[in-house]
């Protein structure tokens, strides 16, 4: 089996890979361990900023989110706004504290990592198997290249 996760889903896939036998783990725009997260996550945890998760859905919050994701065209910006709007509030409110308090008990398994060179959400500060031009939303903006790379790794 192959586990693939994007962003927060990559962190979830990393944890799932520790308990479920798998052939390959692939993470995109993600972190495989807490030390790969930006320092601002630590600052936000100590300031209790996760309590203000609802602000993400405001007009200004959506604009900031869209810019931080590194989307360059209106089509991708609109898609991200719709995804955020459709994400249940409870998920956002519970995922942020989980992210901020992520402390795995065992080391992460080896993963194939794909990242955007201009990712401002989870900066590419460590080695990656593939780094593409773009930001956190490379799964949208660089879908073709990512798909080809994954197929190559899978031997398809």
Short description:
This protein has 156 residues and is an alpha/beta fold. It is built from seven helices and four strands; from the N terminus they run βαβααααββαα.
Could you list some keywords that capture this structure?
156 residues; alpha/beta; 4-stranded parallel sheet; 12% strand; globular
**How would a textbook summarize the main sheet?**
4 strands, parallel
Shape: globular
Structural class: alpha/beta
Overall number of strands:
4
Describe the structure.
There is one protein chain. This protein has helices at residues 8-17, 39-47, 59-69, 74-86, 89-100, 138-141, 143-154; strands at residues 2-6, 24-28, 112-116, 130-132. It has 156 residues and is α/β, with parallel strands linked by helices. Helix 3 (59-69) packs across helix 4 (74-86). The chain is globular, with a radius of gyration of 16 Å. The two termini are 14 Å apart.
List the helices and strands and how they pair.
Blueprint: E1 2-6, H1 8-17, E2 24-28, H2 39-47, H3 59-69, H4 74-86, H5 89-100, E3 112-116, E4 130-132, H6 138-141, H7 143-154
Parallel strand pairs: 1-2, 2-3, 3-4
């Amino acid at each position: 089996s192959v586990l693939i996760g994007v962003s927060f889903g990559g962190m979830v896939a990393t944890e799932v890979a520790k308990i479920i036998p798998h052939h390959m783990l692939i993470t995109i725009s993600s972190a495989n361990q807490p030390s790969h997260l930006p320092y601002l996550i630590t600052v936000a945890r100590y300031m209790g900023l996760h309590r203000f998760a609802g602000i993400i859905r405001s007009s200004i919050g959506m604009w900031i989110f869209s810019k931080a994701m590194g989307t360059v065209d209106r089509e991708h910006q609109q898609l991200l706004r719709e995804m955020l709007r459709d994400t249940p509030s409870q998920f956002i409110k519970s995922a942020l504290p989980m992210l901020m308090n992520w402390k795995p008990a065992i080391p992460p398994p080896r993963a194939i990592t794909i990242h955007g060179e201009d990712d401002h959400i989870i900066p590419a500060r460590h080695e990656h198997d593939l780094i593409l031009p773009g930001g956190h939303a490379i799964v949208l903006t660089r879908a073709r290249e990512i798909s080809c790379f994954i197929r190559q790794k899978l031997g398809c």
